[in-house]
Amino acid sequence: MTEAWTDHALKALRAACRTTDGPPLLALLRTHDLGDVLQQCGDALGAAASRGVPGAREMAVRCATALRERDWPGDEVLAGQLGTAVGSAASALRPLPVDLEELSGLLEGDPAFSAGRIDLNTGECRPAVVDDEELWTEDESEDVERWLHVPSAGSRDAYRDMEDFIGTLDDQDLARFLGIAIQGPGAFRRFKDMLATSPAQLQRYWLFSAERQLGRARVWLADHGYRPAPPGSH
User: Fold this and answer.
1) Would the CA dihedral through 173, 38, 92, 100 be positive or negative?
2) Is 189 within 8 Å of 158 (Cβ atoms)?
3) With bands split at pLDDT 50, 70 and 90, how would you rate the model's confidence at 234?
4) pTM summary value
5) What's the average model confidence in pLDDT over 218-232?
6) Predicted pLDDT of residue 139
7) What is the phi/psi pair of residue 145, to 5°?
8) Any idea which of 3-17, 68-82, 118-132 has the lowest mean pLDDT?
9) Is residue 97 a contact partner of residue 234, using CB atoms and an 8 Å limit?
10) In angstroms, rounded to a whole number, what is the distance separating the alpha carbons of residues 171 and 173?
11) CA-CA distance, 118 to 124, in Å (whole number)?
């Protein structure tokens, strides 16, 4: 019997993923629903499997199977990366220590602050608004081999996530109210305000949304020839 992801458990998961600390990561995944955090934990899990952390290879295989069964955007890409980590496949994607959450923010964030570029030397995501406020030397701004431009894709996919999440609800009354809430300007704010009346469903939505956003960012990165790699693992 697995436990639901609480804020405390998710904080511990993110810490384990950032530090690629294999044993704590595996302990969390054994006691909680793996299917809720596949995109969040996949890269750190692959790194643990590559290092031969006991139990990591088996968990990575489980994760890859679950990804292929779910088949959301980015799931097949991550499943392939996990196959590389456990030695069952080869990858042509170059490792880059980029934060997928930050990349997602550039791709799908507030139009006033999204878009930007990735430093291919460090994996740092630089929002366009930061670049506009800083002075760059001519060499820095024109070094096409160092920077990967990230366009703003807007919020269409995030809106579709809300629609798809509503379709997963068993509570038909809540689903109907949420369907009304997402009509017209201010849809995101009204949706979250309405969902806040059901904390359990709000937590489900945050996990659902994070998985979708990270998956889309992963696809975008793979389309440009890269895969995310935890710091120090590449």
Assistant:
1) positive
2) no
3) very low
4) 0.90
5) 89
6) 52
7) -80, -15
8) 118-132
9) yes
10) 6
11) 6
Is 80 exceeded by the pLDDT of residue 157?
yes
Note the pLDDT of residue 61: 96
Q: What mean pLDDT is predicted for residues 220-224?
A: 97
| Token pair in block for residue 135 | 């002075």
Q: What are the CA-CA distances from residue 122 to residues 19, 66, 99, 181, 229 (Å)?
A: 17, 31, 11, 41, 11
First to last CA, the chain: 35
Q: Where are the alpha helices (DSSP H) in the chain?
A: 7-19, 22-31, 38-50, 56-70, 75-85, 100-108, 128-133, 138-142, 156-166, 172-181, 187-195, 199-223
Q: Which two tokens stand for residue 171?
A: 């509570």
Largest CA distance in the chain: 58
Residue with tokens 């998710």, as numbered in its chain: 10
CB atoms within 10 A of CB 147: 18
The tokens describing 55, both together, are 């139990």
Which among 105, 211, 225, 139 has a CA at the least distance from the CA of 117?
105
